[in-house]
Amino acid sequence: MKLELVTNEEINMLHSKFKKFNTHLVEEPSKLYNHIGIMDVYNRVLTEEEASELLGRSHNLKYGPKFVSTFTNLFHIEENEVYVHIYKKGLVKAEFRQILSRLNRKEANFFRKLFSSNKGIYKIGDVEALIFLTKLSVNELYFTNFFFPSLDTVIIGNWDLSLPVYSKTTIGFQKFKEIIEENGLFIRQ
């Protein structure tokens, strides 16, 4: 698995495009992004009854591979120019240990390395690292923000396989929608 700390030049490029790295904390994303959707297994919002029946660990295990496939396809069209923001401030030691206990040895070592530096923005260097980070979100262990600068789009890890997608351009949003739908998922607006 390969992640690289970003250079100052890359930080400046990402900041000029996206303005904020902790996108999951943005209260009014429509002020920063022209196109907003939710990548989801379902093409509509579930009722409370449906959600209690359908969502949970087995749901994530069943549909997780579609998300992994989607992220992998996006990684390949981005020519490996995908960045991730690891928000480190909100994680307490007990949660950190809980996450480590659910990972295999290699994954746990990799996860520890992410937190060995104060920096939180990395360039994803290979598909293996991308899959690992995607699975952290899919399995609801730890959520990250994925930045796709050539398409001016960010995907935010989130609960219940409902991942917000924010894009600054119609072209970027449409490309994401196309790839998401090719992988058997939906993008709700």
Could you please describe the fold and organization of this structure?
The chain contains 7 helices and 8 strands. By secondary structure, the protein is an alpha+beta fold. Strands 1-4-3-5-6-7-2-8 form an 8-stranded antiparallel sheet, with helices on both faces. The longest helix has 21 residues. The N and C termini lie far apart (34 Å). This is DUF3786 domain-containing protein.
Low-confidence stretches: none
> How big is the Rg?
16 Å
Question: How much helicity do the residues have?
Answer: 40-55%
Cross-sheet strand order for the largest sheet:
1-4-3-5-6-7-2-8
Largest sheet: 8 strands, antiparallel
Report the β-strand fraction as a percent range. 15-25%
Overview features:
189 residues; DUF3786 domain-containing protein; globular; 8 strands; alpha+beta; eight-stranded antiparallel sheet; 7 helices
How are the elements arranged and paired?
Layout: E1 3-5, H1 8-18, E2 35-40, H2 48-54, H3 57-77, E3 83-85, H4 93-101, H5 105-114, E4 121-124, H6 127-138, E5 145-148, E6 153-156, E7 163-167, H7 170-182, E8 186-188
Antiparallel strand pairs: 1-4, 2-7, 2-8, 3-4, 3-5, 5-6, 6-7
Helix pairs in contact: 3-6, 3-7
Structure summarized in a few sentences:
It comes from Peribacillus frigoritolerans. This protein has seven helices and eight strands; from the N terminus they run βαβααβααβαβββαβ. The chain is an alpha+beta fold and 189 residues long.
